[in-house]
Amino acid sequence: MIPLRVANRKAFVWDVGDIAMLRSQHRICGVFTGTLPHLSQQNLFLGVPMVLMPEEVVLLIENELAVLVDDPKAHIQPSIGELQRWSLKEKELAQSQISHAPGVAKEPPGMSEEAIKKRKDREMKKAMAAEATSSAGPENALSPAETAAPSAQPSETQYTLVIPAASTSFEWYDDGMCRYTTIQAARAAGIWDYPSNLHERAKCGVFRGLWEQGMYLGGGIKFGGDYLVYPGDPLRYHAHFSATVLDSPTSSLTPMEVVAHGRLGTVTKKSHLLCGWNDEKKEVSYLTIEWAGFG
Region entry Disordered: which residue ranges (predicted)? Predict the structure, then answer.
């Protein structure tokens, strides 16, 4: 089962394979929160870890697809010897990377050894010509055309760099004694408490009801709802609905709320979906609102 590593009441997924499985097989998208090495100063394309919505976590645990891991508790205080061995491995890894990349700091990528040699020869000839020009008089000075070096032709040889990376985890990380397969067990351990009231149960019920119909769901706060409902992967489809969760099928709505939901859905090219949760029957009723012209 997929480990969901919980810290500060939030569940994170760190393994790329688990992230791909959640998206492709279980229609769980989450939200990426980590920065990428070459794009660290932006917030459009992010990387691992992926943080899950509480409703996604509850669904995965209840369907026995994942387990909750108390991440802070899984980190054991390392001994001096373990730290020294880890430091030695890091130094060996750095030396291995250097040995696999000779001359990387000296020559730009994309040049073969033959091209580098020709370039050095041209630079040497240019330096000798400049020295001869400076020592000779104005009558013997070479013209700029004679001293200019021919332009370097781009090399078709691909530049490759092999960086070995260890895939093993730290010796001082052990989650064997802090895994929880049920929400009740995680709540008793004090690492998870969702859902804890009627509204949270309603959100979990609505999320499951839409998910079981084959929908993908994402956060809908930007569009005035609790969820965005997609007919397929959000990377390929636009959302068809913005959904709002109601604690009861008979919850009252003011006329202003009805108008706001209808107009907002129309402006964003979506239908607004009102989802009423029946906590006794554990059922969801749906009602869509669309803005229409009059007369």
Answer: 119-153
Nearest Cα residue to 53 out of 184, 178, 204: 204
Q: Which of 8-12, 24-28, 41-45, 158-162 has the lowest mean pLDDT?
A: 158-162
Taking a C-beta distance cutoff of 8 angstroms, is the pair 67, 179 a contact? Answer: yes
Nearest Cα to 210, choosing from 195, 194, 228?
Answer: 228
Active-site annotation, residues = 230, 238, 270
Reply yes or no on whether the pLDDT at 146 is more than 50.
Answer: no
Nearest CA to 62 out of 29, 33, 28, 18 is that of: 28
Q: How many other CB atoms are there within 10 angstroms of residue 182's CB atom?
A: 14
Please choose, from the candidates 238, 236, 237, 253, the residue with its C-alpha nearest in 3D space to the C-alpha of residue 287.
253
CA distance 205 to 285: 11
Cα separation values, 279 from 2, 170, 225, Å = 29, 45, 20
Query: pLDDT tens digit string along 223-282?
Result: 889 999 999 999 999 999 999 999 999 988 888 988 888 888 888 888 899 999 999 999
Cα 284 from Cα 209, distance rounded (Å): 7
Q: Are 288 and 274 in contact (CB under 8 A)?
A: yes
Share of residues in the chain with pLDDT > 90 (%): 45
pLDDT digits (tens, 9 = 90+) for 96-132: 877 776 555 455 555 667 777 888 888 888 888 877 7
Average pLDDT over every residue of 139-156? 48
Q: How far apart are CA 286 and CA 273, in angstroms?
A: 7
